[in-house]
User: Fold this.
Amino acid sequence: MAYDEGLTQRIREFLEGKAGVREKKMFGGVAFLIGGNMCCGVVGDELMVRVGPDAYDEALAQPHARAMDFTGRPMRGMVYVAVAGFEDDADLSAWIGRGVAFAASLPAK
Assistant:
């Protein structure tokens, strides 16, 4: 599956200069890891964000967010965000910030 290279570049720019950032091909797209823990990524033209189980319900309540159901079953703690939810740089930054905060809260791998 192809993924949105433009969105991928926007994420790179937001994460530029942050320590421990790595890219990895995952889920048919690309994921961004911090300290070895996934924080966000791109699948198709959608943003995926790892918000963690405690922030999951609040994230799902946001406009344009839905459960990440890549396997056919929702993955608690992970959400997809449709294009309309991150067109604005401030919205994209907020979503990436959620993912970074969760990944940073985990022990490095």
In short: The first strand starts at residue 21 and ends at 26. The mean pLDDT is 95. Residues 3 and 44 are 4 Å apart (CA to CA). The two ends are 28 Å apart (CA to CA).
